Amino acid sequence: MVHETATPHPEPTTAPDAEALAAWIGRLAGVDPAGLSSRAMIDQLTALERVKSAAAAAQARLAAGFDQAQRDAEAARGVPSERRGKGVSAQVALARRDSAFRGRQHLGLAKVLTMEMPHTLAALERGDLSEWRATLMARETATLSRDDRAKVDAEMADHLADLGDRRLAAEARERAYRLDPGSALRGVRGARADRRVTVRPAPDTMTNLTAFLPAEQGVAAYAALKAVADRLRATGDPRGRGQIMADELVRRLTGQGAACDVPIEVNLVMGEDSVFGGSHQPAHLVGYGPVPGPVARELLRNSDARVWLRRLHTDPHDGALASMDRHRREFSPLMRKLLVLRDQTCRTPWCDALIRHADHVVGVDEGGESSRDNGQGLCEACNYVKALPGWHSTPVARRFGSRHVVDLVTPTGHTYSSHAPAPPGRPSPGARRARQLRLAGGRSPSSRSVFETNLQRRLAS
């Protein structure tokens, strides 16, 4: 086995502060391969990989320290133990520009490394181990007691730097089984409790529909689909085996006669030019993301299922989705749908989770209205965090041509701004100026009826 040799470097006498780290980042921005030998470039790549690992270790220490500091402060204020630390992972997520889900993972790993796996943390600090491989160590020992986990950590300390992802996970798992055979059974039971179905966008307007199932159920489902594909292929079906299995999966799950029949409402947000003309302006398929204009038109015109059309009126100045205000405690179903269509995913910065809650930016008990400007779409976790003490949200006054903006202030005083995504078909600056002139001259055409008539005619043709 070939090992690279690390260049010794002096230990820092004091930890750098945020300004020093920012200045060092600026130095990295000036890295230039010009004039470097091939060996020097590889040496720098190796050193920078070690820097990434060391930075991950420092983040783990800071996250765990921040969690403990928050819990100590809350204990001093008399907060019950079961409520301490709420919102800490959300602040870690924002600081790391990540989702709330990933924030919980980051904090959990930080606490495991600093409290239970000192050898793994030391390897990460030296740059001998990547953050992902440290995560694998923590994951494969998750069902062990604290003492047994420390034993695995110590046993593998001397060769953590030599193992790839698969071998590291396998060795940690084997040691966990040996130390506590019952941990395997607990892991199986925990995994079965976590069974779920997820959907994620894939390239070329496709999706990955994934089922996390017990082994026997997954094998049985696959075997049933494969049997249907083999039978149809034997009778001359021209589709490939994978195509038949995919179509049969959709047909069985939805109860449709064919995979292309979609009897449920699918929200496809398109600009007028994308619906009528040859515009390539992308549309937005809710739950998926942007799709090319021609593909969206094909979905409208060539679907074998009934097509529902819902008019969404936009501001003629900036193209933002508009709606009537509602002076009521709850958002109406139509207003909630509009928030989902406008925001597309959770509005917390860097959280791409699906929207679960229509939330008041400023709460009703604080005088907030159930309106478009005071509404936002959030995932369940982020909405609960926002209600914790010390968190504040404020809608930013919209200027001409701007999108909906919300400022989120965390308990530490850090402010993060969230901008609603640009809606499909947003008019270009030239088109906006033309509309402004029409409005200024009092010649704003009433286009809703014309739009509806043309749309029905085009779809029928």
Q: What is the secondary structure topology, with strand pairs?
A:
Elements: H1 18-28, H2 38-76, H3 88-95, H4 100-115, H5 118-126, H6 131-140, H7 146-155, H8 165-179, H9 182-193, E1 196-202, E2 206-212, H10 215-234, H11 241-254, E3 268-269, H12 272-276, E4 283-285, E5 289-291, H13 293-302, H14 333-343, E6 357-360, E7 375-378, H15 380-386, E8 392-396, E9 405-409, E10 415-419, H16 429-440, H17 448-460
Antiparallel strand pairs: 1-2, 3-4, 4-5, 6-7, 8-9, 9-10
Work out the radius of gyration. Answer: 27 Å
Query: What is the mean predicted local confidence, pLDDT?
Result: 79
Sheet with the most strands: spatial strand order: 3-4-5
Largest sheet: 3 strands, antiparallel
Order of helices and strands: HHHHHHHHHEEHHEHEEHHEEHEEEHH
Helix content: 40-55%
Principal-axis shape? globular
Q: Helical stretch count?
A: 17
Alpha-carbon distance between the termini? Answer: 68 Å
> Spans with pLDDT under 50 lasting ≥5 residues?
1-10, 323-328, 442-449
Structural class: mainly alpha
Got a strand count?
Answer: 10
Strand content: 5-15%
Quaternary structure type? single chain
